[in-house]
Amino acid sequence: MILTPLLTLLSTTTATLGKILYAGVNESGGEFGVFGVKGQGLPGRFGVDYAFINKTTVDIFVDQEKINFFRVTFLMERMAPLAFGLGARFNETYFSEYEDAINHITLTKGAYALIDPHNYMRYNDPSSQPFSGSVIGNTSDPTAATTKQFGEFWGELARRFRTNPKVVFGINNEPHDMPTQLILQNNQAAINAIRAAGAPQLILAPGNGFTGGHAWTQVTGANDAPSSEFLNKMVDPLRNTAIDVHEYLDIDFSGSHDECTQPGPSNLANLTTWLQQNHLKAVISEFGGGNNQNCFQFIDDLLNYLASNDVYIGWSIWAAGPIWGTASPCCGEDTGSLEPGQFNDLGQPDAFTTVWANAVRPNIPKNLKRSGVSSLS
Ligand SMILES: *[C@@H]1O[C@H](CO)[C@@H](O)[C@H](O)[C@H]1NC(C)=O
Ligand SMILES: *[C@@H]1O[C@H](CO)[C@@H](O)[C@H](O)[C@H]1NC(C)=O
Ligand SMILES: *[C@@H]1O[C@H](CO)[C@@H](O)[C@H](O)[C@H]1NC(C)=O
Ligand SMILES: *[C@@H]1O[C@H](CO)[C@@H](O)[C@H](O)[C@H]1NC(C)=O
Ligand SMILES: CC(=O)N[C@H]1CO[C@H](CO)[C@@H](O)[C@@H]1O
């Protein structure tokens, strides 16, 4: 019924589209306000502890910058409260606040929105992310949510968005320090549930090691198998799933240093080969760099590399969002967030005026995907 028209759209590709289909920015804030003490900020106050977007700045990004892609973070412990457990029962207040943000981006502005449960594939204690909380599907941990529950959660989320062609489903933010096979299982449960809900949109699936592109073919954590050994085994009946990759350009790939020293192109080379060999595509949904010429060059190099390699279909830089204040989501106190109209910790204009203007804006493709169901092509 609903599936049929969307599927019809899915099969119509437009010849004039560029190779990079999606380009944009992270909208971070929906996961804020829980850090420190266990239970802090749950459920939290909208507009105080957490917020999703500032509609005015989304409008600036779409109308003036012509981007078409926003990754919008939220916290699973708020969407599926601990009192209910992970699953299909949502906090309707939080959901409607989130839906309002997604609808503004997609229905009002016509851009694509990547739905991002910002949970590191963990659930039940976000107070010390990325390390707190039980790993989803850990059968040795009686307090852990199960893979089945994770599927139920995704089935419900997908059901609620299945008629909106402009959403993209991001399975989870940055899994790490867990068996790579379990990431595959959880990803597969999400894919199955999304498709069973009748939702045909693009899905982005993460790997291990904070889904770092540079480490795709490497052991991560204590001794977790490389993402490359398992992430080519996912099955999507609609063949509309891509790999979700994060790639920072500083010394330890964390995005916490001012200086860029890790070149994107050479660090992504093995991932690129793996994607080609496995006929897969990827979106770099997080990257970033500081407010300095060296980083501008590194970002420029990265975005040029993505543009010139077929396997990459999109990117979103970390991060804008309504409640960063002067805090720097990336790369030093002189950077600040990418939110238009704000200031950095030194009281100077934030990264929208510096990093975005120097390194991102010149790389925004003109022929981004503007219509149709989110897809690989
Ligand atoms: C749902 O979220 C709202 C807004 O944050 C909050 O006031 C309410 O207590 C939450 N309900 C549950 C069951 O968590
Ligand atoms: C799974 O749970 C067990 C028991 O709590 C714990 O020892 C183990 O570290 C957990 N595994 C992961 C990947 O977190
Ligand atoms: C890329 O693959 C080669 C060959 O397997 C390996 O020697 C090298 O360490 C890998 N590079 C990275 C960054 O993982
Ligand atoms: C939203 O963004 C606009 C434009 O930068 C700014 O003037 C306004 O203060 C912001 N609103 C909030 C609530 O931050
Ligand atoms: C630079 C930066 O803030 N990177 C962060 C990107 O988001 C993930 C998830 O919140 C963090 O782990 C990174 O530190």
From TrEMBL:
Enzyme nomenclature, EC number: 3.2.1.4
**Cleaved signal peptide residues:** 1-18
Q: Which UniProt keywords apply?
A: Glycosidase, Hydrolase, Signal
In terms of Gene3D superfamilies, this protein maps to: Glycosidases
GO BP, sorted A to Z: glucan catabolic process
Give the Glycoside hydrolase family domain ranges: 25-320
The enzyme's main class, written as a single word, is: hydrolase
**GO MF annotation list:** cellulase activity
What catalytic reaction does the record list?
Endohydrolysis of (1->4)-beta-D-glucosidic linkages in cellulose, lichenin and cereal beta-D-glucans
Entry's family note: Belongs to the glycosyl hydrolase 5 (cellulase A) family.
Which protein is depicted? cellulase
